[in-house]
Amino acid sequence: MITIEQLKDVKTRTEALYRYLDIENKKVQVEEEQLRTQAPGFWDDAKKAEAQMKKVKSLQGWIEGYNAVKTLTDELELAFDFYKDELVTEEEVDEAYAKSLQALEELELKNMLRSEADQMDCVLKINSGAGGTESQDWSSMLMRMYMRWAESNGYKLSVANLQEGDEAGIKTVTMNIEGAYAYGYLKGENGVHRLVRVSPYNAQGKRMTSFASVFVTPLVDDSIEVVVEPARLSWDTFRSGGAGGQNVNKVESGVRLRYQYKDPYTGEEEEILIENTETRDQPKNKENAMRQLRSILYDKELQHRMEEQAKVEAGKKKIEWGSQIRSYVFDDRRVKDHRTNYQTSDVNGVMDGKIDGFIKAYLMEFSDSEA
């Protein structure tokens, strides 16, 4: 049975969210933005209209989210009072508390995602490290983990490019994950993921260590200004791999984009290489590859801003991109994040996509330094 202090904590946090989210102002904003959708010729510019509808939906989402939390908090308070009159059981009060707390924590977490990029879809790329079959198998396990996470959270996932391993697993995969705040939730997955296990590919049954790198970038849309210099751009085409037989791809629908990027701040140059085999339509694959390029360029600008912010706030923990972030130790039944020290013994659950604990711990520790 919950205590009166626990009930007061839920009520206080719910009231605080009302202020943090500025619900009254959001209600006014919704009315104003909805009026714009009723203007003559609103749908003449489809992209602009869709962006406006997305804005309205986002505002409504915050209001509906808060209303749901407030309703559950009111029901909890009612259940607590009813228990005094023996109208409900302890179990029913505890159940109402669990529901209200979960909804409250989810909205508090979402409230941490305030930057423009946080709200976007994302591109998630996995590259296997050195170690051949071991690392390639580990990369495929990570791919499945993120697929399960996306599925359980109602996100749309599509594979833009996949290169299978020589014997098992994958060498690399690029996935688009689309849905509200996909980048905000997954940005903390950036870095090197380390696996320690007794290898099924080792005849002596030795404990092996494998590495895979995960890169997460916002998937930008047409509303974001990104400059792509045509002179630095070149294309190759190739046949997409198929199942063979009647399904083999007889045309060069796969595209390979090369972009000679020059860092505007340091002057350093590098080649950005993107392959896309998402569809059998070459123009569509080119369009998808360009979208990924714009996402990468946008992300580079974001990283520069974060580095500048880190210099200004040198006392805060710096977020190291590309560093080893998490260890998955199978025989010790332990998955640990080295940045937050959050860990769990539910290895199977994590590999089935239950990574929300890691996501929350990361946002709780680092959201302020990204603001």
TrEMBL record:
Q: Which residues form the signal peptide?
A: none
Carrying N5-methylglutamine, the residues are 246
**What does the entry's PTM section describe?**
Methylated by PrmC. Methylation increases the termination efficiency of RF2.
Prokaryotic-type class I peptide chain release factors domain segment(s): 239-255
Q: Does the keyword Hydrolase apply?
A: yes
A GO cellular component annotation here is: cytoplasm
**Key words, A-Z:** Cytoplasm, Hydrolase, Methylation, Protein biosynthesis
Q: Which GO molecular-function terms appear in the entry?
A: hydrolase activity; translation release factor activity, codon specific
Q: Where in the cell is it found?
A: Cytoplasm
| SMART domains named among the record's database cross-references | PCRF
Cytoplasm among keywords: yes
Main localization is cytoplasm
| Family, as annotated | Belongs to the prokaryotic/mitochondrial release factor family.
Record's function text:
Peptide chain release factor 2 directs the termination of translation in response to the peptide chain termination codons UGA and UAA.
Protein's UniProt name: Peptide chain release factor 2
Q: Which organism is it from?
A: Phocaeicola coprocola DSM 17136
Query: Source organism lineage?
Result: Bacteria, Pseudomonadati, Bacteroidota, Bacteroidia, Bacteroidales
